[in-house]
Structures are given as C-alpha cells and as structure tokens.
Amino acid sequence: MLLHILGVCGTFMAGLALLAREAGFEVIGSDSNAYPPMSTQLTAAGITVCEGYSAAHLQSPQPDLVIVGNAMTRGNPAVEYLLNSGLPYTSGPQWLAEHILPQRWVLAVAGTHGKTSASSMLAWLLEDAGLQPGFLIGGLPANFNCSARLGQTPFFVVEADEYDSAFFDKRSKFVHYRPRTLVLNNLEYDHADIFPDLAAIQRQFHHLVRTVPSEALIISNGSDANLDAVLQQGCWTPTETIVQGDWQAFDASPDFSQFSVSWQGQMQGRLTWPLLGQHNCHNALAALAAARHAGVPTAQAIQSLSQFKNVKRRLELRGEVGGVRVYDDFAHHPTAIASTLAGLRQHVGKQRILAVLEPRSNTMRLGIFADALGQALAPADAVYFYQPPSQDWRPPDHDDLPPLLHFSDVGQLVEQLSTSAQRGDHILIMSNGGFENIHQRLLERLQERFTT
Questions:
Q1: DSSP class of residue 141?
Q2: How far apart are CA 235 and CA 420, in angstroms?
Q3: What angle do CA 176, 181, 186 make, to 5 degrees?
Q4: Which residues lie closer than 8 Å to 200 by C-beta, 6 or more apart?
C-alpha cells in the first residue's frame, strides 16, 4: 500500500512516515521546507521527499491513501487536487490511532511546554528497563537517534500535541490517542492562530481527559491552576500530582543539574544529570511518575535518567570556537525562553549570555507575547532579535532589560554576533525552525575570526 504524506518534514509527520515504513507501507511525501534533523532521518530511511506541493506528486505514482499534515490549508495545489480527484485521505493522528495504537499501552505526554523532552525521558526510562517501547516524539532523542519506532512490546510513548489534526478535523491531535497513562505537564495560552483564548485550549484538554479509562492513570502538575480547572470539569480516572503533591523535587542545585526525588513523602533517590533548568526537573518528575505506572521502579528510573542525553535542539551545544560556545534551542514561548535562560545563567554564573531569538511560531509572529518577552529575556546580557520585514513588532526595550539589537537580515546578524563575541561567551540561539542555518554560519565565521 502506497502512502503519500503531505507535510512530511514536520516533526510529527516525519515520525509518522518512519512508523509507516517500519510497519511495511511504501511511503513518499511532499514538503516545501525540509531541514535537519527530520529531513536527514527521512533520507536515511529511504523515504523520497518531493519538493513543494504540486498536484503532479499525487498523480505519478498515485497513492492508495494520502495523509494530510495540519500545516496544509485549502488553496494548496496538492490539497485542491486531492479533494477534486476523490483520493482517499486522512489526518496523521487518525492514521496513527487506526494503524499503530490499537492494542497498545499508550503513554501520552501533553502540555504547553516540555512534551518532547518529557516524552524522550519516558521512552528512555522504559528502554533502559528492557521494555523496548515504541514511540513517536516531535524531536530527535539522542539516546535513540530516531524520532519514532514501532517497538517490541505493547508500550508506546507519544508526544500528545494540542494543535489541530488537519484542515478538515479541528480537534486537537491528542484526542485520537486513547492513553492508558496520561501526563498533563502544564497549560498556558498558545497557538493563537487556532485558539481564541485559554478556555478553548482547556476545552480540548478536557476532551482528552474524557478518553482516559477509569483503570488508567492521569499524572498532572499539581502547581498548575489551569490544569486544575480542566480536571474540575470532570475526571473519572485516578490522578497523581507532580511538582506539588505526590511527586516532588527537593534539595536542588541552583541550575537543577542535581536534585532529590520524593514520592508521597518517601525519598526515592538523587539525580545527577547533564540537563539544566527547573523545567527539566519538572519533566523528569513527570517521566518518573509515568514510568512507575508502567512498572519501572523509581530508584532504577532515577539511575536511568542520569544517562539521559537530551533531545536535539534543546540547549544543544552546536560547537565551541575561541572559547565561545554556541547553543541551539527550540524555545518559542516566553515561559520556555525564561526557564532555559535561567538554567543557563545559573550554570555559567557571570559569564556573558548573548540571546538570539527568531519569533517563528504562528503565535510569536502575531506578536501575542511581545510584552512578556522582555522579562523572559532578562537573564541575558544582550538580545539579538531577528525581525523580518513582514513583522511590525519587537520586544520592549527598557533600561532595566538587556540591550536589544534587531536585525532583518540573518547575514548581518551573524556578522555582528561574530564581531561582538568574546572568549567565555555563551550564544543561545532560539528558534523552532532552521533559521537560515545560522548556527553553522556563525561557527564558521567565528572560526575565521579566531584563527586569522
């Protein structure tokens, strides 16, 4: 059976393509914006990616089924041909639910922040315990070097996104997954392009809660009032809480590279690991709780987390030249930006942090978080803000905030950064896209500067 995936280089759809290929389907895809790490995964798996969305891609060869990514809209040439031709089609989450998840113990990780990291941690805890889980994660966990696989046991970890399923199915992706273990990590307003307000997102989260069996488990952030409001709408499943309540971290180092874990007041162990930031501490608590529900002893899981290697593009050190360290991070919401910067600041002390931000997500581009960005970026020593000509807003620039420099050209930004950087600096580049290969371009320019 031949599947054609529209939007195949998206983090979710690329993982879906890998699962389909492993399950025995023939897979090709189309996309207009391919960049690593997803594009390299598809190439390595032998999955052909057609450039753009020409109707011709659906004609020769003609697929038996088209899986439509949620980035596809009416007016797209491939979508219009698909509808006019009468080809069978479905959404990615629906295909996953029908072809991969039946008879699986689904462990779903939902929340505004930390889904990819917590899902990757959970998959690793199950793997290191010998449970050989399947998973579909919206990133590339370094412990696996793939974002999706079928696995050898009923356990299947899925990053449960609240974004809509497709242009023809405006339900959140996660309502398709029917989890037996559900993590609700946190909840804030996001995705302003599809949700008018926080209440609309909470409604989707409650639709998810309604699908969880009474003999399953919901793990919720006990310090999050927005999640409490979701559960108060009705919950028919036993719950455990993290951060406050059942699972807590204590005696943490300032950068959260070390902390102790308790469950219902009982000491479970102390974790020392390479990750930074309070947000990752919370992700760890969620993963430990979910792994325990699947049968992994917590003391063993804490030991496994000490060997966790994080996910590509999560405070990933891309290189060091002349004593200047360049990091890549996916953060694209003020809360995630603030937590990432705070963790890095605690780790590097008084050394300079130069923060580089591309506001690329739909919500960011709308300027919804413009005012909040100022305080989120406060731990940096200077902020380099990429502002393309089509964007008419920028973060506030106040005397009590780090200096704000704005650029409409990535080449000029790279040149200014490479000139300003000093030995001992940390350059944190934040974007949820390819950002015109800025990381490699900067490292090459630094190499030229410090070796000539």
A1: B
A2: 54
A3: 85
A4: none
